[in-house]
Structures are given as structure tokens and as C-alpha cells.
Specification:
single chain; alpha+beta; 4-stranded antiparallel β-sheet; 4 strands
């Protein structure tokens, strides 16, 4: 999705316009996540960019999209550009952190 959303509307109040934009984004993400995954892919990941225009858009995490749209509204932009591109995501295993008890025992042995 590459779309420029106007933040003003003669019919709706500004708060309602923001909620409509967020709703469109949630619907798009939900629709993309429902698509069949290719083999050896764990989940759908997304590359997101948000800004006043396509050339000034900055990278953003999916969880930050709503905050970025709210800040655009507070900054009184005329419109906000949102780009969301789906990509395959792969889960990585986390290295377990040592337990706090192990550190205490190691110090006691010294």
C-alpha cells in the first residue's frame, strides 16, 4: 500500500478522519496477514514509511504507525503519506540470558 491520506475533510471532523485512516491501515494489514505464506516463511513482516510526502517519508515500525499519524495530525499537516510493503519474515531463536542466580554463585566462588 502506497497512499496519501488527506487529514482534512469537509464532511468529517478531524478526529474522525484520523480514525478512518487508522481503520484503513488495520484492514490492509489484516488482509495481507491472511494471505498464504510461502514455504519456509514464518510470518508476514512489513516495511513501513510515514511522512508528509513520499520523498520525505521516514522508516517506521508497524506498531508506531498510529503514533506517527497522530503526530502528523498534531503538526497540522495537510496530508500524510503511508507506505506499507509486505515481506516474508523469519523467526530467529533468542540466546537465553544467564539467570541472576548464576552470577551470584560465580561471584561467591571467587
Amino acid at each position: 500500500m502506497k497512499k496519501t491520506f488527506p487529514l482534512t475533510d469537509p464532511v468529517h471532523k478531524p478526529a474522525r478522519v484520523i480514525e478512518l485512516i487508522k481503520s484503513d491501515i488495520r484492514k490492509y494489514l489484516k488482509r495481507e496477514r491472511r494471505k498464504a505464506l510461502p514455504e519456509e516463511v514464518d510470518f508476514w513482516d512489513f516495511d513501513c514509511r510515514v511522512g508528509a510526502a513520499s520523498d520525505s517519508a521516514e522508516q517506521a515500525h508497524v506498531a508506531e504507525l498510529n503514533k506517527k499519524i497522530d503526530s502528523a495530525s498534531e503538526s497540522e499537516w495537510e496530508s500524510v503519506y503511508v507506505e506499507i510493503l509486505a515481506k516474508p519474515g523469519y523467526r530467529t531463536s533468542k540466546i537465553p540470558a544467564p539467570a541472576p542466580d548464576d552470577e551470584v554463585e560465580a561471584e561467591a566462588e571467587d
